[in-house]
Amino acid sequence: MLEKGLVIKTTGSWHNVLAGDKTIVPCGIKGKLRKRGIRTTNPVAVGDNVEFYRMENESTGIITNILARKNYIIRKSSKLSKESHILAANLDQAFLMVSLVSPRTTLRFVDRFLATSEAYQIPSILVFNKTDLYSDELIAEMKQLREMYGSIGYDSVETSAPEKKGVEELKRRMHNKINLIAGNSGVGKSSIINAMDPTLNLKTLPVSEIHKTGKHTTTFSEMFELASGGFIIDTPGIKGFGIIDMDREEIFHFFPDIFKYSKKCRYYNCMHTNEPDCAVKEAVEKGNLSISRYESYLSLYYDDKGKYRVSKY
Ligand SMILES: Nc1nc2c(ncn2[C@@H]2O[C@H](COP(=O)(O)OP(=O)(O)OP(=O)(O)O)[C@@H](O)[C@H]2O)c(=O)[nH]1
Ligand SMILES: [Mg+2]
Ligand SMILES: [Zn+2]
Fold it and tell me: pLDDT tens for residues 110-155?
């Protein structure tokens, strides 16, 4: 019998498929599937909706079809390679976890992530974690940042793992959706997921230990079903979305606040750098557009040869 399922984990040639009856069926792939579609090293990714058959023994299965993807995020297999590795598919939204202390997330990192999420057309939400460690100054800074990003259209949530702050709000926002969680190593992604659903019991490490190994604690791609409903992908090794190439001339399209002002620039092909009568620069001078956002834009614009790679974060 042909069944439909959701790929929740991939390890080499095996793919764990969550079936309609809630059982998890390790599946191989029908040979023919491998040749189709985009040039990827993995034909099936976490988040894929698939059709599969169970084998006679019923404990394993074979995937025969991948249903059309709403979106997907990729990583290039190597710098020169034309082949990509699909990290995850069918994301409903992404949560970028940031912290203002230990470790401090840079705004450059935040803005690169948000621009990439715009390019992928994946709605993003900021999560300010470790608020229990913030001084009064940092609380004030967080408030300003939340207002600034909120005015562009990015929601944010304040969380603390030990205090369980914001945990219910995250559960609500993630309910019945496929959610990606990203952020620098040590900001507390796994800790917050554990706070949302202690049965998941993900491995976490003190920040001091992370620096010693230089590696993310989370090292493989897996999707977890939350007891409160919905799925969450705790991203390993990638701090952001993986690689995306943008043409230099279109980078400002992925900064909604800059894009808004760009329509009033004198030149239709204004890049908002040195051109006269640039409405973007005027907005920065008047304080209507955040300087840090503009600087993030420039840092992407002046990146190597106009192509920017998110892996450079
Ligand atoms: N004070 C405080 N510490 C936290 C909070 N969240 C996480 N931590 C600590 O920060 C350290 C790193 O947390 P992890 O959850 O492992 O971080 P991660 O983002 O999953 O890191 P990677 O898997 O390496 O990407 C651990 O020692 C946690 O206990 C928080 O809200 N407040
Ligand atoms: Mg982790
Ligand atoms: Zn301009």
Answer: 999 999 899 989 999 999 999 999 999 999 999 999 999 999 999 9
Q: For the whole prediction, is pTM greater than 0.70?
A: yes
Measuring from atom 30 of ligand 1, which residue has the nearest CA? Answer: 130
User: Which residues crowd ion ligand 3, with CB under 5 Å?
Assistant: 265, 270, 272, 278, 280
Ligand 2 centroid, distance to 234 Cα (angstroms): 7
CATH hierarchy code of domain 248-312: 1.10.40.50
**Delimiting residues of CATH 1.10.40.50 domain(s) in the chain:** 248-312
DSSP, residue by residue, the chain? -EEEEEEEEEETTEEEEEETTS-EEEEEE-GGGGGSSS-BS-SS-TT-EEEEEE-TTSS-EEEEEEPPPS-EEEEESSSS-S-EEEEEE--SEEEEEEESSSSPPPHHHHHHHHHHHHHHT--EEEEEE-GGG--HHHHHHHHHHHHHHHHHT--EEE-BTTTTBTHHHHHHHHTTSEEEEE-STTSSHHHHHHHH-GGG------HHHHHHHTS-S--S-EEEE-TTSSEEEE--S-SSS------GGGGGGG-HHHHHHHTTSSSTT--SSS-TT-HHHHHHHTTSS-HHHHHHHHHHHTSGGG---GGG-
Question: What stretch(es) of the chain map to CATH 3.40.50.300?
Answer: 91-234
Which residue, judged by its Cα, is nearest atom 7 of ligand 1? 188
Fold of 91-234: Rossmann fold (3.40.50)
User: What pLDDT shows up at residue 308?
Assistant: 44
Say how many Å lie between the CA of residue 250 and the centre of ligand 3: 12
For the structural domain made of 2-88, what CATH number should be given?
2.40.50.140
Q: Nearest ligand, CA of residue 196?
A: 1
